[in-house]
Amino acid sequence: MTKILVIAEHLDGKLNPSTARAVSAAAAVKPEAIDVLVLADNADAIAAEAAKIEGVTRVLTANRTENAHALAAVLAPQVAKAAAGYSHVFAPSTTFGKDLGPRVAALLGVPQVSDVMTVEGSHTFKRPVYAGNAIVTVEADPALPVVATIRTASWPAAAIGANSAPVEALGLDVALPSHTRFVELKQGKSDRPDLQSASKVVSGGRGVGSKENFEIIYKFADRIGAAVGASRAAVDAGYVPNEMQVGQTGKIIAPELYMAIGISGAIQHLTGIKDAGTIVAINKDAEAPIFEVADIGLVGDLFKIIPELESAL
Amino acid sequence: MKILVGYKRVVDYNVRIQVKPDGTGVVTEGVKLSANPFDDIALEEALRLREKGVAEEVVIVGIGPADLTAHLRNGLAMGANRAIHVTTAEAIQPLTAARTFLKLVEKEQPGLVILGKQAIDDDANQTGQMLAALWDRPQATFASKVEIAEGKATVTREVDAGLETIEAELPAVITTDLRLNEPRFIKLPDIMKAKSKPIEVIEFASLGVEAGGHLKTTHYAAPPKRSKGVMVNDAAELVATLKQKGLL
Ligand SMILES: Cc1cc2nc3c(=O)[nH]c(=O)nc-3n(C[C@H](O)[C@H](O)[C@H](O)COP(=O)(O)OP(=O)(O)OC[C@H]3O[C@@H](n4cnc5c(N)ncnc54)[C@H](O)[C@@H]3O)c2cc1C
Ligand SMILES: Nc1ncnc2c1ncn2[C@@H]1O[C@H](COP(=O)(O)O)[C@@H](O)[C@H]1O
Questions:
Q1: Can you tell me which atom of ligand 1 is nearest the CA of B37?
Q2: In terms of Cα–Cα distance, which of A225, A151, A230, A167 is closest to A193?
Q3: Looking at the domain assignment, is residue A62 inside a domain?
Q4: Cβ neighbour number for residue A113 with a 10 Å cutoff
Q5: Distance of residue A85 Cα from the nearest chain B Cα, in angstroms
Q6: In a domain, A175, yes or no
Q7: Strands B82-87 and B152-159
Q8: What is the DSSP letter of A24?
Q9: Which domain holds residue A120?
Q10: Tell me: the pLDDT tens digits for B60-118?
Q11: What is the DSSP track for B70-91?
Q12: Chain A within 8 Å of B91 (Cβ-Cβ)?
């Protein structure tokens, strides 16, 4: 029987939108049941949100003080235990899921399918390798549970609102390690749309030149209601914090509109934006590789063009 | 303390990958191979810990075919004390790599294992987490800062929300992110010196690594191409085009 356990991602008492995307991928397997597992110190509000996701059969909660922070070493033994009776365990391919999924898989003694892009069958999936320059079809052993992370940019979020799945508390009797401890989380606070789920993203690269200059990217993004991203070079140079990095080793995103400003278009950056609806490139170098993938290109100096864009809006 | 470092050889990150027309793989003939960038960062971090006096010995590990020797010599030239070469003709998957590392951990008893967060060929991002699970030890993935003191590692991790700091009792597994450090360049005299450093060759089959749990890769395809775009002449035309598409 095909039954899928989806691990909910949450922070500060709120469900992360990546969870509903993982539910979409689970639905594509056409299982008999999709249960969402919420591991938290106070799971109720998060579970209530998860119960509204279309396609969810049940929401299971594991309430423990040890679950106050998402430490993989603490969560994995609980997930491995909760996985009994399920044919698949899915988690979003965010830093949360990437940290946790392989630890769960190893405890279950099975491989993991990372970054599922499409579901071809209950045990057959497509996933990217070589920074997205090749797509492989992989088959998992049907005799074993499948552990997979879901490439969120490849899946729409399942609708939220129409469902009211029952919520059940799980008594997971597992000893948890104390060898790993949470110290702190420094979050970039921003009122701008969330980079991973925004429909519009404006990104700046090394061409922006400085932290101070990045203000013009923020200002323009705010004018059009976009989230702000960056290339690795911009993060490395200290213009912006790390959580804004887009690309192979940053965030993989799929906004309807992506504007790359002062970004050359290295393969590793393009990996992060392949699924964007429309890519706009603004670069003073007409030969920049970003123009090979851009739907709309404009050659010129960003410091001249951005003010002109603002007045043309 | 001894530090074990994962040192995988992969297709160089600058190579434009070509998928073979018959879908059996990617073209690797005549393609430049290099150390996985995250593994150079792992090695650099281990060397810095040795230079600080936190560790005494840095051992690099490569699991792969017989011709891995030159690659391991590069890691030795960078500064590793010695290398372990687990020989296997077949490409191994993360679960098998983790099981192999576990065997070496049992043998070597390191205080720390540093691996890359992902190998840029399979992009799996699994081996470190799997090793930590099998070893029943802490994991600190995606590290951008590492401090070792009083038997524990304090690690800052690059997570989606920002920067998370955790404490992990040693022994532990750390996986590296790009901003952890900038690897040093290899100097010519070091290449000469590396020639006399030991490489221990271990036959994969002799380790008794648990078999099973493989994914079968049945097909390789090139990613869908984006269609050729248009160039606009000025800001006004760009705004007009975006408005027309309903994007602004
Ligand atoms: C293993 C690995 C992983 C990586 N992961 C990532 C990743 O996740 N994300 C990522 O982005 N990179 C990643 N990189 C780095 C990547 O290879 C590039 O170095 C990086 O993307 C370059 O950033 P950039 O385009 O901002 O800078 P550059 O390549 O320096 O480009 C700057 C561009 O700005 C233009 N410019 C300059 N001034 C102006 C102006 N006034 N007006 C208009 N245009 C201007 C220039 O013409 C140039 O094209 C990774 C690299 C490695 C090895
Ligand atoms: N064959 C191998 N030889 C040496 N190290 C490896 C090997 N496979 C994986 N690793 C280590 O595990 C990390 C993560 O790999 P992966 O899980 O495949 O993305 C790599 O950066 C290496 O440090």
A1: 1
A2: A225
A3: yes
A4: 26
A5: 18
A6: no
A7: unpaired
A8: H
A9: 3-169
A10: 999 999 999 999 999 999 999 999 999 999 999 999 999 999 999 999 999 999 999 99
A11: HHHHHHHHHT-SEEEEEE-SS-
A12: no
